[in-house]
Design a protein that fits this description.
Length: about 220
């Protein structure tokens, strides 16, 4: 889990748009699993298993939870009939085991529009996990969430790590990023100012360095 940090306008979202193929970089090279990638496009990024979780992105509000998880990838038998029971069972398992959804009010049959903002984000994460995403990108997923929802969401983000997947996590709140990321990369005005293993730097020192970078453009 990599955390991307940096002041507003540092270029975090822009970097994400490059990684997901929406923008082409003016300079630099992109490597994925040690392999150089030329002309990364949106379909290519998806092929590489890069999934983005945006604010309540692309969930069908009026559909059930299990339909949302399997949208575009429904399980069917050889006659083309949907395996509804199996999809519901897998959804239940994903929600409880992978993501630690505990609310008894949430079942595979629940309609998405009854979910809180945090739960919707959780569904998007579960879906990315289910779709075998290799790298899950979260650009400020806590934006607009209440404190309680935010805490829940941070737990979902931890779930990504526990599922053995990689993630890039951006949040305006450095506490969130520090508490889940193994490594943080600090951006400043479109450049990498530095990176740190969270195990090797205290939160205070990291905050200190970020202030210094924002003021002077360097860590020293
Ligand atoms: N490497 C870069 N080179 C040129 N412009 C950049 C670069 N990175 C970011 N920008 C510009 O800076 C502005 C803010 O970037 P953004 O990615 O939204 O920042 P953040 O998400 O960190 O707040 C955008 O207008 C973007 O086009
Ligand atoms: Mg941004």
């Amino acid at each position: 889990m990599v955390g991307l940090l940096g002041d507003n306008g540092a270029g975090k979202s822009t970097l994400i748009k490059i990684i997901t193929g929406y923008h082409q970089p003016d300079e630099g090279e992109i490597f994925c699993n040690g392999q150089k990638i030329d002309h990364l496009s949106v379909p290519k990024a998806r092929e590489l298993g890069i999934e983005t979780v945006y604010q309540e992105r692309a969930l069908a509000e009026l559909q059930s939870l299990w339909r949302n998880i399997f949208i575009g990838r429904e399980l069917s038998n050889s006659l083309g009939f949907l395996k509804v029971k199996e999809m519901q069972a897998q959804t239940e398992q994903l929600m409880l085991e992978s993501m630690g959804f505990t609310s008894t009010a949430v079942s595979p049959e629940s309609t998405i529009k009854t979910f809180s903002g945090g739960e919707k984000q959780g569904v998007a994460i579960v879906r990315a996990l289910f779709f075998d995403a290799e790298i899950i990108v979260l650009d400020e997923p806590t934006m607009g969430l209440s404190l309680k929802e935010t805490r829940k969401l941070i737990n979902f983000v931890r779930g990504i790590k526990e599922a053995g997947k990689s993630a890039i996590f951006i949040d305006h709140n450095i506490f969130h990023v520090y508490s889940v990321a193994d490594r943080v990369v600090v951006l400043d005005r479109g450049r990498v100012a530095g990176e740190f293993m969270t195990s090797a730097i205290s939160l205070n020192d990291l905050m200190d360095k970020m202030y210094r970078v924002a003021e002077t453009g360097s860590f020293d």
